[in-house]
Amino acid sequence: MFNWFKSKKPETSTPCAQSTQPISPQERLVQGLNRTRKALFSTTGSDQASRASQLEYWRTALIQADVGLTLTQALITEAEKALPKQPDPKATLEALKQALYTQCLSNTPTHFTLELEALTSILVVGINGAGKTTTIAKLAHHFKHEGHSVLLAAGDTYRAAAIEQLKHWGQRSGVPVIAQRPGADSASVIFDALKAAQARQSTVMIADTAGRLHTQHNLMEELSKIKRVMGKADHKAPQHTWLVLDGTLGQNALTQVKTFHDTLGLTGLIMTKLDGSAQGGMLLNIQKTFDLPILFIGVGEQAEDLQPFDTHAFIEALLTPLNQAQIIDQND
Fold first, then answer.
1. What whole-number percentage of the chain has pLDDT above 90?
2. What is the CATH number that goes with domain 25-108+318-331?
3. CA-wise closest residue to 170 among 191, 193, 187
4. 331 has a pLDDT exceeding 50
5. pTM of the model
6. Residue ranges with strand state E in the chain
7. What gap in Å lies between CA 114 and CA 123, rounded to an integer?
8. 36, 65 in Cβ contact below 8 A?
9. Mean pLDDT computed over 173-180
10. pLDDT of residue 60
11. How far apart are CA 201 and CA 190, in angstroms?
12. Using an 8 Å Cβ cutoff, are 271 and 298 in contact?
């Protein structure tokens, strides 16, 4: 018995110093999905295992990674059609990868981009602890790097720490932050920020909001009020309403997406903390369940670890066997 995906190390291998060169976005993604990949590739089995045994292994692994029962069954059924009776485990992996491409790439949008000429306002929402404020700071870094003039609104007025955190990130990135005292009306803060963005000819305004559970009806209605007030400053605002999801929460994310979408009419999703989750398959489950684009994913703490979501790159990283990543690390 041995691991299907284990590679034999060179006999003359010697320890090497950790590379100081920056890693590529794909390598960041592979490393950020390590916990999910360890769950997918941790089981050992015989190289002579039957097709049924191999597919049953993957059925269990995908469900445990929160890919979801419906999508998992569709993947297994499609992969089975492409395999001989006694497939090599690597051939089974490749068939599964192709099935994922078929199921998840058909209606995938291209990378999200914004026009440089016009002001775009983005309302960012989510539950407590999802990482909204940090994500907004990283979004500001991303859009500024693309050449945009960015302004932030400290709309989470329930927490003084959130206001200070956003101001701190703004100072580090050279991005202005419109804020008021803790306890101020969130809609008023965001309205002022939108007016300031218009006056300064900013091209992106991103508004933070207080975290709230999707079950708190009164607080969800407060978000609807914020959207209405933004519309008074700009009849097109907000052009985007994005939900930040905690990648460690598993199946609960599906309920969050539905409730926030029903209340606000979401235009996109961001999933954070995938580096701390063994349930990264949930992202594919959400993408298949809802007609909403996943725009960015977070796979680490650095600003560069918030990446534009690419389904093809995600599938490649998710199904990269652990030994392949180790070989990359050793050769770097």
1. 51
2. 1.20.120
3. 193
4. no
5. 0.85
6. 120-125, 150-153, 177-178, 204-207, 240-246, 268-272, 294-298, 306-308
7. 15
8. yes
9. 95
10. 92
11. 16
12. yes
pLDDT tens digits, 257-313: 999 999 999 999 999 999 888 888 898 889 888 888 999 999 888 888 899 999 899
CA distance 279 to 249: 8
Contacts 24+ apart (CB under 8 A), 101-105: 101/312, 101/315, 102/78, 103/71, 103/74, 103/75, 103/78, 103/288, 104/284, 104/287, 104/288, 104/311, 104/315, 105/311, 105/312
Comparing CA positions, the residue from 214, 201, 213, 184 lying closest to residue 148 is 201
Q: Which residues of 162-177 are buried (b: 16+ CB within 10 A; e: fewer)?
A: bbebbeebbeebebbb
Q: Where are the domains of the chain?
A: 25-108+318-331, 120-310
Interval 45-64: pLDDT, tens: 555 678 888 899 999 999 98
DSSP labels for 186-228? HHHHHHHHHHHHHHTT-SEEEE------TT-HHHHHHHHHHHH
**Residue 330 token pair:** 């050793």
User: Whole-angstrom Cα distance, residue 149 to residue 49?
Assistant: 57
Task: At 280, list the tokens.
Answer: 């990264």
120-310: CATH topology: Rossmann fold (3.40.50)
Q: Which two tokens stand for residue 261?
A: 């979408």
Mean pLDDT of the chain: 85
Residue of 189, 305, 175, 321 lying closest to 247 (CA atoms):
305
Token pair listed for 124: 């960012």
